[in-house]
Amino acid sequence: MKIKGKIRYIIVAFAFIVVAGALVAYYLYQKPVKNFANSTADITIEAKDLFDAFIKNEEKAITKFVSDDKTIKVKGKILEIIANSDGTSVISLEVGDPEGAISCNMEKEYSNKTSKLKQGDIVTIQGQCTGYQELISKEVIMMRCGISD
Amino acid sequence: MKNHHIIYAIFFISIILSANQQTATAQEKYVSKNGHIWFYSQTPLETIEAHNNQVATIINIKTGAIAFDLLMKSFKFKKALMEEHFNENYVHSETYPKCTFSGKIVDINNFNLTKNGKYKVEVEGDLTMHGVTKKIKQTGTLEVKDDKIYATSKFDVKPEDYNIEIPKLVRDKIASTIEVNVDIVYQLFEKR
Fold first, then answer.
1. Residue A5 to residues A2, A9, A16, A18, B80, Cα–Cα distance (Å)
2. What is the extent of the structural domain holding A126?
3. Could you tell me the fold of the domain covering B29-188?
């Protein structure tokens, strides 16, 4: 009787662990990507300073701004707004270098807010910094961006 | 006096000529900073899809030179875990942040890309990612319409060609060839 009870207890505990493990695995698997546009900022910085950091030392800037899914909040003056084919847009911010910019890919949810903005406006945008590219002009890229109030 | 006139004339003619030359080169270059490249990996167990709409690209319609530059980190996945595995375990995007292509349109002299129309072209050149450069040759379509060029292409990339290792545990879920799609709207390059 006693042994049987123990075995039952072990089976129940084991089943519980298996189910819990499966649930955790399923949760991790289904987890959507972090909402960069609407989360607490890890780093707040001026557009010019973010740009300069990449020009000065790209590798260091990647470690600081790109690694570990950090939310970057960047403040600057709008240089231009380019429409994407899918209805979203890219807002580029001035950085003090006429050949450079921070290019911010806006999320769909912010299309309304974005459409009210124009060249020269000062905005604070937050999102995920993905790095630096310079084929056409010098660009620091921000993805999954939202307008921060 | 006469000599002066000739010198002035030469001076002005050369200025006009060089100005013409500059507009000529500017009108050969078409660019896009928000090109769209996406890829699929399809297996019975799992379909994986990721989009990058921050691709920078230049095409020279006279020489046929074509170049792409994109950040691996800019590929957006739906599931956090897939994006994390892609960046950290497969393409190591912090060590190799960029993917670049530099090449040319084959037999560019057979195409007049200043004229509206749809052109099927072959592009060959060097594709670099994950620290590995491979020569590739793929087909694509260029549609010239009112000062814009709409470029599309679809081709397969084998991760193992670029030393991208897919662990055994997930090999059934990731296809051995990845389908890459390109969709770019080029505009005439204007320097601001």
1. 5, 6, 16, 20, 43
2. 36-147
3. Lipocalin (2.40.128)
